[in-house]
């Protein structure tokens, strides 16, 4: 009997590992893709660089679609790692509810969560396309306007102090309570919970994503830093005021840019 239980536990653990391995593979592939695109843009005269430049906002529908793909991959690279803490809790609950379907439920939850973020790639691509055509972004999708940069930073910083931010962040900081209140059995239920939970995360962190237009959407270092900040907001105790510290830093940065460029405005 003990041997049978050990086999079941081992098999379940292997299936759960497959979910984490799959997530890690997607994250690695996403960073690889973004890194390759960034390198292609260094020699601006090459054909690959011209294509990447189009993806950064020029051209018509094809370029807009390319920009959407770029932002969708960016969301996977940045946000999929941040779902790991809540996915681990969800997996534990799913294992207790139905061990045979726990891995499928966890995969469905992660899929729903990331789908919410991929949906954000649409508005981000449209905004990038519009700002580029207005000559407010360069080919690397970085602001060329001090006023735009200051406005984005101050807006992102102020949002950190709003009740909506706090309400949405609470769902990310306490996923167990959220899961217990919204739990749905089955793969479809897990997908729905993931989509809803991901939507709260989008509402919590969308303003931080807008900072990418200040530092450059193809800046891999800033992608990694923002991903760490988002993860920090979820795991650092609320009493530390980590989210408010980010808000203060962003507002200060925006005010500094505005003050430094004031004569030219």
Word description of this protein:
With 265 residues, the protein is mainly alpha-helical. α5 packs parallel to α10.
**Main β-sheet: number of strands, strand sense, barrel status?**
none
Specify the number of helices. 13
Radius of gyration: 20 Å
Strand content range: under 5%
Dominant shape: globular
Mean pLDDT across the residues is 84
Fill in the keyword field for this structure.
265 residues; mainly alpha; globular; disordered N terminus
SSE blueprint and pairings:
Elements: H1 2-40, H2 47-55, H3 61-79, H4 84-97, H5 102-119, H6 121-133, H7 146-159, H8 163-173, H9 175-182, H10 186-210, H11 212-215, H12 220-235, H13 242-260
Helix pairs in contact: 1-3, 1-5, 2-3, 3-5, 3-6, 3-12, 4-5, 5-10, 7-13, 8-10
Give me a quick take on this structure.
The chain is an all-alpha fold. The chain is built from 13 helices and no strands. Helix content is 79%, strand content 0%.
